[in-house]
Amino acid sequence: MHRTKLLDHVILLIGVFIMVGPIVVAFMTSTHEAADIHRNGLQILPGGHMIDTYTTVLTKEGGFTGKITGLRMILNSLILGIGFAAGKIVLSMMAAYALVYFRFRFATITFWMIFTTLLLPLEVRILPSYEVMNALNLTNTYTGLIVPLLASATGTFYFRQFFKSIPDELLEAARIDGAGPFKFFIDVIVPLSKTMIAAIFIIMFVYGWNQYLWPTLMTTDETFFTLVRGIKQILLVWVGSNIPDYNEAFALAILAMLPPVMIIVLFQRWFIKGLTESDK
Amino acid sequence: MTHAPSLSPTSPAVPTAGGFFRRFRSAPAEPHFAKRVQFNSPLLPYLFLAPQMAIIFVFFYWPSVQAIQSSFYLEDPFGFGSTFVGLANYTDVLKSGEYRGIARFTAVFTAAVTFFSLAIGLLLAVKADGVIRGNGTYKTLLIWVYAIAPPVAGLMGMMFFDQHIGPLVKFAAVFGWDMKVGLNYNDTAIAMIVVSVWKQIPYNFIFFLSGLQGIPVSVREAALMDCRAGFRRFWTVTLPLLAPTAFFLLIINTTYALFDTFGIIDVMVKDKAANNPISLVYKVYMDGFRGNDLGGSSAQSVILMLVVFVLTIFQFRFIERRVHYN
Fold this sequence. Notes:
Chain A has 15 helices and no strands. By secondary structure, chain A is mostly helical.
């Protein structure tokens, strides 16, 4: 029995090494100078240039991109992540509320129209989506960045499922007390959904923060670049340079992963709950 | 307010994918009448639905219809209108040797990424479920990578497979393998698969682990008594019980490999698709945005839509028959 347990730990430690090792190496390497990395390869021990490198990445304009600083990219990423998560929650709670708590004529067709959006991911309709955004003059705006991503209805299904699990007695009681649909929504449904909202928010924030394809298409103006979108720029700058700024590239990668990783580690329980119960 | 037990954040993780299947199974049967009591109002439901429906129409249905429509037209490269060409865009695409090559690569890539990330995720989940000490620590450390965006993972991959400083290239050199990621087709493909698998392991790990933890203690104890050999117990008891989770993950991983790896591929080929392997989605992007071939790109989009559609339907039919519990 003990022998197998030891083997289990060895396998798990190898797993941890493979999953965490590259991140540690990336961070350690980012604290060295570019020339040093160029000479000696990736680093596993801290170097002395962490503060210089990160200050440069955060505040210097025209590092990898022409006009904007790392701080501005962080701000844009936050706007995208929070805007997307909040928008998704508001939209899908409202729609799910209508589907579950109201009797109305086009319920079935509405349901199927929302259902269909789950079948086709954004990636298969990128070009026409881009054309639509162009026609609406929404390229290089935060609206254009956030709103089209809300078109998939994952959240709606999730909240619909959850609302259906709320006992009918609550609505009966509320109606006896004279509560209307709005009051019931605000005073009963929203407070009941608090934990679920938190779980969904975490998932959606990470999803929004990590968006790449859509921001790449929608933003040509650098002031709208998110951190993840900026990654591409790093590599384009590299082509043709003598000693690539490995340190700054790694620093930017670390910055791009830091907020979502922190959120997942800190709110692990909610994150796993949100993930395993909302599917996506 | 304690009547919905699954609400509390302290309740154990519920056995996964249940909601997903339930959603599809029960959904068509009773989209309304979900509640015995409902509000009756002529306008309010539409008001609540309006924002969601508006966004779906403008950003989902409109572009989807456009894609289908423009797949039958040949766009003038100088922007002077377009000509109806029937199925010519489709036949051009399907006849092209390049497209077939990319389709073949996409199939291999998808199969490899799905298989390895599922296998490693399952192995780690089974081990993490088995150990008692350090269970939580392992879990936290193993799920980190989920939060990393695909292009960021791709960037890390580029560094680790770098000609000059990459430790993995040096490691390969020990075995006499001269890896040239970005130049050699097969080497680039392998690097892409490694990075894509690495990025997806945490997802599968989380689902398998909560699937395992959802197996009742009584079942585990009975299995332990009936079957002493750990490996056989795993095959005959644990794995069948994980079947719903595994099928669900099969769909998710296939879509991940087809679509979400775009960022990894884009970063790793750096716009120079010339001699590098790319996926079908990347080809849609290249033709549409770099090659300005609206018709061809749209035809490819529609083909992909059909693939996803058939895949989804097939998987659900299959699951309906095979998996009876969740």
